[in-house]
Specification:
NADH Oxidase; 4 strands; binds flavin mononucleotide
Length: 255
Amino acid sequence: MKDIATTLLKRTSVRRYERQPIEAEKLQLIYEAIANSPTSYNGQQYSVIAIDDQPLKEKLYELTGQKQIKTCALFLIFCADYHKIECLAREKGIDVPPFRDTMDGIMVGTIDATIAMSNARIMAEALGLGCCCIGYVRTAAPQEVSAMLHLPQGTFIVCGLAIGYPREQPDIKPKQDEPLLIHRNGYHDEEITQRLQQYDEHISVYNRTRQGSTTDNDWCGHIAGYYDEGINNRVLTYLESQGCGIGHENDTNKA
Ligand SMILES: Cc1cc2nc3c(=O)[nH]c(=O)nc-3n(C[C@H](O)[C@H](O)[C@H](O)COP(=O)(O)O)c2cc1C
């Protein structure tokens, strides 16, 4: 197993995989890493759909356009989950407040699912596997994907994780310098634009010269382009179709 520093500091997203299944012992370690994730209140407000069925992966690829889903050995979909507590509460005659219909409830489920995904990713990468997070599984056709996976009310998709043996070793993408990421004892806005200009230039050079396919993308314009696409995602409509959202919070604010 790789040590933790190498696992984290040499990490890159891997989008091409060997046709090689993942050994049962490795899968078990990934699932144990997921199960021991920290969660808000120990509420474990998440569930994972583990997909290794090839026809199902291909259908998900058709819906999302993300090729990694069909070529990876295992595709994990991390969901926020308030269905579990409601099942037992109903049995025990306990009232569950409509937390899943508040902004904090949405954040709690999203954070729990995301931390579980991170634990899975770190364990998988330490075991020599490659991973790629797939946000498109939440945004491209979430209603269709949820129906296909029989997701009950009170659950919603947060993110997918493709896992498999790497067929590529991409260059590490340059990230922002420490002063842009870590602010000591409060946010420091001085020199931020100047530092970001340097980063923008750094990533443009990387994109023009990296291994594999190159692009002319900078950072700022490229990311703004993603936001331009993202503002059309109808995530609240999707959450509401799963019985979640911010309806309770809106009603309380009006009252
Ligand atoms: C929440 C999340 C969602 C992502 N969704 C996708 C995706 O749908 N498709 C994809 O190819 N990469 C996706 N990525 C991978 C990012 O593009 C990648 O992490 C970023 O470009 C930085 O590259 P690196 O991971 O190699 O450092 C996602 C990453 C995160 C954290």
